[in-house]
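Workshop exercise sheet. Pairs work together: one partner reads the sequence aloud, the other fills in the structure field after running the prediction. Swap roles for the next sheet.
Pair: D.N. / O.F.
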Amino acid sequence: MSIIPLWAQGALWGLISGGALVIGALVAYFVPVRQCLTAGIMAFGSGVLISALSFELMDEAYKTGGVYSTGFGFLAGAAVYTLANWMLARHGARHRKRSGTTQKKQPSEQEDSGSGMAIAVGSLLDGIPESIVIGLSMLHGGAVSTVAVIAIFLSNIPEGLSSAAGMKKAGRSAVYIFGIWTGIAVLSGLASLVGYAVFRHFTAGVVAATTAIAAGAILAMLVDTMIPEAFEEAHDFAGLITVAGFLAAFALSKQGG
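Structure field:
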């Protein structure tokens, strides 16, 4: 990919990782997937992301910006995400990653007017921090973090799968479902481009703080949305599966290093 400008590479990697959401949605829409399997995949993806933000994002931010910049950014990212997620939850986006038919499910537009837009914005909110991280990773020598791309790609498949399954059960159309995930995949590419093209002009401290902000938002997203869905259906094995995902990403980071 050396003949491709770095800013374009950033956009492409973000688009690839975001495209996993579309893959997951396609599987959920056309293939009957048992809820326990969906939950298991969600747990594995959660473990992968936790490992990536621990050994890739936070570690790199700490080495570059120190404990104070990293700690402040980490808490700020979680706080901003939590506030935005709380506001969206009040408009029907609380269970946007739910695939089940229990009372904790996505509402239809008839049940909660405006929930469709809230779910779309919430899904975008979940994906932007991950995509920015990909662009930021290219600031270190111009090469993308393979571990970050793989981790985000692997976690996006169950995210798209579970959420699209819930959208379908809530009676939302195929145009709505695939429109959301295709749009988010494109915006993921743009967010990754911004992560590289904009922040390459800032100091190392600012980049470190931004990386930590993204890491905090990702961890808050996992606890608020992905992990509850995983535990809901696979609680007997959710912990073990999450650990397996964590170990897979950890091993990948060490192989990459």
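Discussion prompt: The first helix runs from residue 6 to 30. What would you look at next?
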